[in-house]
Amino acid sequence: MCTFRKLIRSVDKSSELLRITQTVDACYELGALLKQAEAGHKAILFESVQNSPFTVAGGLLTSPGRFGQSLNHPAGNNLSQAEHARLVQGAIQSPIPATEQSFAPSKDIVLTGDEIDCRTLPVPTFFKEDTGPFMTAAVGICRNSANEIINAGFYRVLMLGRNSLAVSASPSSGLYGIMQKDKKAGRITHIALIIGAEPALLMAAAAKVPENISELDVAGALQNESLATITAESSDLFVPANAEFVIEVAINHAQVIENTMGEFGDCYGTQLASVGEVKAITHREKPIFHTIMAGAGKEHNALGLIVLYGIEPDLNKQLQAAFPQVKAVRVLHDPPRMGTQGDVYIVMQNGHACAANQIIEHVYSLTCGPYPISRTIRRVVLLDEDIDITNNREVNWAISIRATSASDYLLYDNFQGSGGLVRIGIDARAHDGNKTQRLLIPGARDFHLDDYQ
To answer: CB of 347 within 8 A of CB of 316?
Structure first.
C-alpha cells in the first residue's frame, strides 16, 4: 500500500523530485514553478511557502507510469493508459471494503472552533482571472443519504476566509445530486475535504463509479489492501486514516456564489459553488499539502482523463455491433479541450461502402461510459485500414491528403448534450484511387539494415 508520503519518497528515489528551499509566494509564483517542473517531467516539493507553516508537493501523478509506480504495479513506469484503465475497471467490479480504526496519523493535530484558520493553508492562486486561491487536489467525501454509501470525488474549492470556503459540484457529479436532495430535505451536507490522500483514492475519486459502490472501496481494490479510515470529528463520515489533511465542512445551502478558474482545457471555466463553514481541520505532524496544477497541467489532465476511460471500449463494442465493417476505434483526449472534448478515430474495412453521415451521426447519438458522445467528443474521423490510428502523424496525413473536398466535412450544432457547440465529422478515406494512396515499398518488412552490416 502506497501512502501520499511513500509516493513522494518513491518519486524522489527515481530522481524525479525537485526540492525548492527558497520561500515562494502561493499567488502565481508557486503555480508558475509547478508548471515548469511538470514540463520537465518532474514533481516538485516547496519546502517554504510565504505565510504558511506547511510544505507543498505537486506534479506527482502526471502519467499512467506514475500511477503504476504508486500502485506498486509490476509494469511500474511502463504502465500504459489502457492497462491502467483495465485496473480501474477491475477495481470497480471487485471493490475491497474500507476498514475503520480508532487511531490515525491524519488526527495527529485536531483544530476546532477558534483554532481553525484556513488562511494558513498554502492554497495557490494559479491564473490572472481566477476568482481567488483554489484547492485543486481535495478529494471531497460525503454520504449519500439515499443508500448510506460514502461518495468521493474531485471538486474545486475556493478559499474565502478563516473558516469559510466554497465547494463546486458539477451537475454530473455524485455530490451535486446528494446536495440537491439534502437541500430539499432541509439537511446540512457534511463534506470532508481530503488533502494528501493515498494515490489509489485519488484515482478512484477521479473515476466514474456507480452510486451503489463507494470510491473508498474501489481505492482498496486498486492498492490490493483495504483503505484504512477513521470517523471524522464533526460528522459520521469515514475519512482516510493516512491523509495529510482532513478539512471538515458543513454546507447549509443558504449561499451559492459564482467562481472562475483556469480549467482542464487550458481556458477559464465558471461554476457555481456552495458556501460552507469549516468545522474542523485535522492533519499529520509536519503535513505535506498536495496541490494539482490547474488548467492543462499534466497531473490535472492525467487524473481528469480517468473518468473517460470507459468510453473507448464501450464505443468500440456498440459500433461493431451496428457496423460490422468497423475494424478499430480509438478515443483521444489529447490535447485537452474545454469540457473534455476529444476525437474518435474509426478504421473502416476497405471496399465496404458506408455513407459517412450514417456512421458519424450514429456515433454522436450514443452514450458511452458516463456521458453522451455528443458531450465529450468534438471530431469523428473515418479512416481506411492502411492508417495506424495509434499514430497521430498518419491520422493527420489522411485528413490532409484524403479529406480535401467540402463534402468530406460534416458540421453539426444541434446534437442534444453538445451545448450548441459545433461537432465535426471528417471522411478521411481514400476517394480518388492512386492519388491518395500511401507510398509503399514492396517487401520492405523483409529487409533489415542490421543484416547488411
So the answer is: no
